[in-house]
Give the backbone structure.
Amino acid sequence: WLKSAVIAQVRPLTATQEGTFASLEKVLRHYAEMGVNCIWLAPVYDPGKNGNGYSNLGPHTIDPRLTGTDDYDEGWARLRSFTVAAHKMNIRIILDIISWGTVLGSELEKEHPDWYIEDREWGGSAFDWKNAEFREWYIKTAVDIVVKTDCDGFRYDVEPHYAGYDVDGEIRKRLMALGKKPFMLSEWGNERRGAYDCEQMLVLGCEKGYRT
C-alpha cells in the first residue's frame, strides 16, 4: 500500500471542534473521499502544563484532552477505537514519536534521573541514549504503543539523530516478530539500514536535511 500512499498529517486537537479521537472518527470519511489512505497523527502524548505534544511527559503517556480521561490505559484504548474505525475505511494510522527527551521536570525524569543527560534539548530535558536501561524501556514502550493501539507505524521526529538506527531498527524487528508490518518514516534523510522505509525531508526536496 505504501507505493500508492497518500498521507495527510492531522493534528487531533484542532481537526474538529471537540478536539478528541471520538470526534475525529466523524471526519475519516472526508479523508477517504479525498483519496487519503494514511493519516499521520501529530503527537498524542500528554504535554503536561508546559508542553506542546512535540515536548511532552513521555511516550508512555497520552493527552487527556484527546481521550476525555486521565487514565492512560483507557486513553490508549480510545485511540485504538479510532484506529479500528480508520482501518474499516482502508486508512492506515501512523503516530509521531518523540525521541529527544521530555518537558522539564516530568515524572519520568523525577523517577529516573539517570535516564537523562545534563544538556537541554528543545527547551526540555534530554534522554541519555547511552543508558542501556533507558534504551530498552523506550524500545518496549514503542512496541507496546503499536500493539495496544493497532497503529501502523511511526513518524520518527528528528530521527535518525537521537535514538538512531539501532534502536529504531530493534523496534521494527520486534514488531515484525509479532506479525506486524510497521511503516517507519524518519523526519530527516536516512540510509534505511532496516530501520526506516523512507524520509520526510528529502521528499520535500530538502537535500541538506541528510546528515550521517
Q: What stands out?
A: The chain has a mean pLDDT of 94.
